[in-house]
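Why run this: before we spend reagent on co-expression, it is cheaper to look at a predicted model of the complex and decide which construct boundaries make sense. The entries below are exactly what would go into the expression plan.
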Amino acid sequence: MEVVDHLAEERSKAEFDVEAMKIVWAGSPQALEVSDRISKLVASDPVFRKDNRPMLSRKDLFKNTLRKAAYAWKRIIELRLSEEEAAKLRFFVDQTAFTDLHWGMFVPAIKGQGTEEQQQKWLPLAYKMQIIGCYAQTELGHGSNVQGLETTATFDPQADEFIIHSPTLTSSKWWPGGLGKVSTHAVVYARLITDGQDHGVHGFIVQLRSLEDHSPLPGVTVGDIGMKFGNGAYNSMDNGVLRFDHVRIPRDQMLMRVSQVTREGKYMQSNVPRQLVYGTMVYVRQTIVADASCALSRAVCIATRYSAVRRQFGSQNGGPETQVIDYKTQQSRLFPLLASAYAFRFVGEWLKWLYMDVTQKLQANDFSTLPEAHACTAGLKSLTTSATADGIEECRKLCGGHGYLCSSGLPELFAVYVPACTYEGDNIVLLLQVARFLMKTVSQLGSGMKPVGTTSYMGRAEHLMQCRCDIQRAEDWEKPRAVLEAFEARAVRMSVACAQNLSKFANSEEGFAELSADLVEVAAAHCQLIVVSKFIEKLQQVIPGKGIKQQLEMLCNVYALFLLHKHQGDFLSTGCITAKQASLANDQLRSLYSQVRPNAIALVDAFNYSDHYLGSILGCYDGNVYPKLYEAAWMDPLNESVVPDGYHEYIQPMLKQQLRGARL
Amino acid sequence: MEVVDHLAEERSKAEFDVEAMKIVWAGSPQALEVSDRISKLVASDPVFRKDNRPMLSRKDLFKNTLRKAAYAWKRIIELRLSEEEAAKLRFFVDQTAFTDLHWGMFVPAIKGQGTEEQQQKWLPLAYKMQIIGCYAQTELGHGSNVQGLETTATFDPQADEFIIHSPTLTSSKWWPGGLGKVSTHAVVYARLITDGQDHGVHGFIVQLRSLEDHSPLPGVTVGDIGMKFGNGAYNSMDNGVLRFDHVRIPRDQMLMRVSQVTREGKYMQSNVPRQLVYGTMVYVRQTIVADASCALSRAVCIATRYSAVRRQFGSQNGGPETQVIDYKTQQSRLFPLLASAYAFRFVGEWLKWLYMDVTQKLQANDFSTLPEAHACTAGLKSLTTSATADGIEECRKLCGGHGYLCSSGLPELFAVYVPACTYEGDNIVLLLQVARFLMKTVSQLGSGMKPVGTTSYMGRAEHLMQCRCDIQRAEDWEKPRAVLEAFEARAVRMSVACAQNLSKFANSEEGFAELSADLVEVAAAHCQLIVVSKFIEKLQQVIPGKGIKQQLEMLCNVYALFLLHKHQGDFLSTGCITAKQASLANDQLRSLYSQVRPNAIALVDAFNYSDHYLGSILGCYDGNVYPKLYEAAWMDPLNESVVPDGYHEYIQPMLKQQLRGARL
Ligand SMILES: Cc1cc2nc3c(=O)[nH]c(=O)nc-3n(C[C@H](O)[C@H](O)[C@H](O)COP(=O)(O)OP(=O)(O)OC[C@H]3O[C@@H](n4cnc5c(N)ncnc54)[C@H](O)[C@@H]3O)c2cc1C
Ligand SMILES: Cc1cc2nc3c(=O)[nH]c(=O)nc-3n(C[C@H](O)[C@H](O)[C@H](O)COP(=O)(O)OP(=O)(O)OC[C@H]3O[C@@H](n4cnc5c(N)ncnc54)[C@H](O)[C@@H]3O)c2cc1C
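The model came back. Tokens follow.
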């Protein structure tokens, strides 16, 4: 195909330096260099092709995943890639696989919960992939309620072993990624029982399969749990089911950093604080927030480019029709998602910092900020994953009919992304945790306890409960202070109102249960404030590059005012703004969309995604959509023959009125 | 498996007569009888099994669809089913197929746009399926903008024929269901050109394939456009691509009811009014609204039953944990969807009536209500399909991790449903049409023109602009009058405000474009009012059966107050209600949820869906979820062998550190 950049004119409209924005998005020039280099490496290697993925059968898809994983590992070794580069490579291969869990959960679990000794024994094996591990927590009957897990690990002092057992059907491990077909080992969460006493859920390293021939060890029943949402998508992963029939493991395979069982069978706590586990959670959720900005930006990139290519209606005198990106309805759906992608990127960056901060404090035995950090990451995980899941589907709809084709890339992106709303904490359950923390914070306001971190605005509750928004013209909404105060006032007022309603209940747990739907809204308001405030903080940094600051200010404003418009009811009912001010915000939003419009394509180019990574005909860099769609269609297996398989048995007898006698 | 009704206790809690509610849902005792009988017929026939559908390759799935379609047709003939019964049978077979378009679009197009003669010639062939037809309108380059289609039909007076041609790549027909592999004929929309003059888009009956061997006729290039969203789902349909290279058809294959081309090549309008086409649109969209209530109720049935089976947290003294349906957050997400399913059912019923009413009026040459009926169906199509698509996904999330499995049925239901937001009019484009109609209605208010039908409340604009809501206690929100007036006031005030903003623009088209995002919100407010008001009207009918009326009143209230809460911002900013009243509505909503709770299972039982139709382990009637999930897992192709295909090539070399030399 002739290579013409159909979006060249769009690109020429940009009012900022795209290369500088690429650095902002990547985080640093060095990060951009790595990401660019590895992305090209993957894109240019035929083994990593993925354009036929949706057409593969489950078995072929799975085999292909094994191939890619092995090949990626081979390349990582051959090229002596650093840890960062290796992670990037897996990221750009873009096929969910057992390695995600091996590196993302198995290794961190051992690091976080294993003793020095255990780490020394197991980590080198894992680092070389001489063993492959997964994270086996969830069971058929229990996911959110980890404390309710039923698998047992009973200590047998005679043998100095634990007996791992699945006492009921619902105690079957169910969901762990990589478990079904690949993992040789698992960190298994089970109720620790010593001398008839139940000590609750603990982690154990359990070997599942022979390292010789991969057959499951005696007492281990293991398999895949079956197809999941979408073509391709998460079906490349072997989420598994696992049952134990009195499987014995040595005592030293209990992860003993925080608590131990001694040779005599005594259960003991070490002097390492339990809160350490929160550190791991903060880490994992921080990566989920970063992933959200990737997934959303990818969908937005596709929808934005296609919206500039697609023309529909509005042709005058036989001229070209209007690009759909010029419709205000399209802009009002698309641009807030573009802004959200940037917002999530920056809050993700900040979370990375938070994790380091928390880790340092933990090492210094300072646990003061941990509950706040924990609530904050839980809330941000919930907010960003929900918004991203919805946002991807909205991007798909923004592409009209063609978005429904697998070749648009959006169906698979959606299907593979949505479980992020469920795993690592169901999003509603997480918001309830945030709400609980907020109610506690409010209740302590009088007591002189100073709220820290992302709740510190609550320390100004008195002011925020009665302040008045002084916006008088649409442009006044450009002032970060005014925006921030409106969000703070809304969050505080909703929190306080809920706390007051709670106090009317004799039993506070009952009150919490009864008002939980409201509490979720309170938590959401708080989390939105965090994202807005971190975006505003980001703008206070020095960010070099022509026009960059202006673009980011514009996006920050779009994000905040879009939220304000969407949740107008909150702002109005708490009296934080007036109806007139809400309407001015809406006017301002409209004028911001016009400012985004000429920069839209460049703003998605700044993600620096290769066509390979995007995996979308609608989103291809050159915008040459129609010929590519047309050519791709003919690749479908159904087009292998002109007359379809089944014609003679089924169609012909129907047309010829010969069904009566037919055996079908 | 032992058959125990795990939901028996739930069923015993119902405060109404489920059998009577089944009749309400079905529409009449007779409709229930038919539906129940046909549903059982389908469920008991092994040919119609669909539990392995998500695992089939595209080709196998397609062949299976051909088989089911042929077999269904055979059964229809053998059992001499009536038209209603045949349609029900296809409905319960529940596999999207070319027959949907044949019966749902091809036949109605000929009926609506063909002359008497044409109908006599073509309909008998279509009725017997001696020909199979599709509806070929959309092209690669044009969907929403039908007037922009590029395919040409040029009249050749010499031969008395039309020459159908695809002049550009973007003029390729693209999307028509049933086109890719099956249809022998199509109604093709093309620009009519006589004597060099372009008369715009018209419909033509074009034969595509030989009736002898199914090969495409000369000049016809046809194929499938490739995989679409999801496993199974819409991939059973052969949405097609079609190009014409100067294909000739006789003149009498132009659909000539409304306009004709004479033997001499003269273009003429008949005395049949053009508006007739709107009649067909009203018909098709009415079926879409009915389908929305089916799809949503199905998802709600699954999520409700599973929420009663699933227990998580809250065990006291070793007793059972809390059913997740008892969590207020779960209720606040689920019950509004349950109420929506009922609301859409009733508005769908009313649309059926509207269609008949419009048809009668058309026959009497009365076009007065047509624009309003058209706007109303466009709006309701948009509202119900958007809400249903979102609702299905919410139901999936309500099922936690297990909802992500194909065996939950929800992923496929979502994937097969979502294009309803796009086909038959993109939902945003439709809302803009509604908005246009509303602005026109507002502008004529002063002129003495009386708004009709669903806009008649605008005739009371003066009152509604200044009325005050008199709610003082939560229970006051039970009064339908108060609810209705709040919705009417909101819709009028938003309309009028938008009209005023529009009037500030010198060029009204520019104004419309600039304010289009607001206009979409106005249209949505109007459509929500329609659904609420039709639900309230339904309650004014006599509806027999113990407790039925109460249940419906409760659901109506849930639906309305849920919307009010969700769109609080609208109600507050227009001053229709106060913040205090909004908060009372929320209190009332909470107490309504408690009233729904004991009836929830019975309310979904009333849909009378068989386990076959539901196609969901999580939603199975007896609630015996876990053993069924466990057994289904082992059916996955990946579990055919314990050691996966690819182990020797990829996993073993990795574990054994032998990748360096390996050829992968
Ligand atoms: C693709 C995918 C990959 C996964 N990978 C792994 C893995 O590698 N290892 C692993 O161990 N697990 C894994 N999981 C499991 C995952 O962690 C759980 O599914 C998740 O924790 C949610 O738990 P659940 O499924 O039990 O949901 P449930 O808790 O059953 O949720 C059902 C509904 O109940 C509601 N609910 C539950 N509790 C409450 C409450 N207290 N208050 C209000 N509402 C409530 C929820 O909001 C939800 O609407 C994976 C899951 C998926 C989908
Ligand atoms: C599963 C499926 C089955 C189908 N079956 C058939 C069939 O049998 N026969 C057939 O002929 N067609 C069929 N179609 C095609 C379908 O009718 C079109 O996809 C639909 O009309 C939408 O048009 P589009 O794809 O051109 O969207 P576009 O118009 O390109 O929409 C893209 C975006 O532009 C926006 N937009 C477009 N115009 C405006 C405007 N004026 N103002 C503001 N925003 C605008 C839309 O809101 C959307 O966000 C099918 C499609 C699907 C997905």
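Residues 328-363 of chain A form the longest helix (36 residues). Residues A 310, 312-313, 324, 327, 329-330, 398, 400-402, 404; B 101, 135-138, 143-144, 175-177, 234, 239, 419, 422-423, 426, 428-429, 432 surround flavin-adenine dinucleotide (ligand 2) (CB under 6 Å). Bring this page to Monday's planning discussion.
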